Amino acid sequence: MNFIRREWRALACAMQFLTRLPVATRTLFDNRDYANSLAWYPVVAMVLGGLLWLFGLMLAEPLSAGHLSSALVAAILLAVWVLLTGALHLDGVADCADAWVGGFGDREKTFQILKDPRSGPIAVVVLVLLLLVKWAALDLLLSSQQWSTIWLIPVLARGAMPYIFWRLDYVSASGLGSSLVAGLSSRRILLSLLFVAVTTVVALAAQPQLLMLFAAVAILVYLWWKRACYQKLGGFNGDCAGALVEFVELGLLLSWAIYSGYGL
User: Are 166 and 180 in contact (CB under 8 A)?
Assistant: First the structure.
């Protein structure tokens, strides 16, 4: 019973942090709950992906009947995507965009900008471009009727989160991230990564080319992000982690749309 209660607390904690979905609990989470919740991030991501898939399914019939355009449906799905997460990771993109550009290679200045809640023009431009490319990619996937695996994108993007908190250098001494790092369990993280790997292979077993494409793009985005984080900060913080989620989602959607557009 204690095991079930502990895991429920961890799942509820992950759900509360990553989404705006109502969680039926009045529990006050402690540092152990936050650390344990990290392993549940891919499961919460699957819930997010499943909800996106359901919204797409509801809009598929009017889309195929010509009552709605693929551009409008793509805009609705993207809006739902952002609302379900409360724009949590977009905030990380905005902060990183301002800090990485405005820091001019100065680590202390970069940290100061990251702590500033205000967004500058660079952040606004990057957010607009990111959302625009996501919308265009969704539009192409919907028009080519290749969107049914959309639920896997959030899973892959958040599947990297347990790994980076486990293996990379967290450079902020405060915030939620420090709680995540403090009580990490290697066994839980490995189980979480195994869940992501098995889910991806099963979902794309009939599409080996798309499986290889997703794996290659996710790895390339991760390596670029890691290099940028260590150059700018000597590690990563919560904003950087949120930015990674958005960058992986963007890379996967864009590469999938191009792959679909060429009819591969």
Answer: no
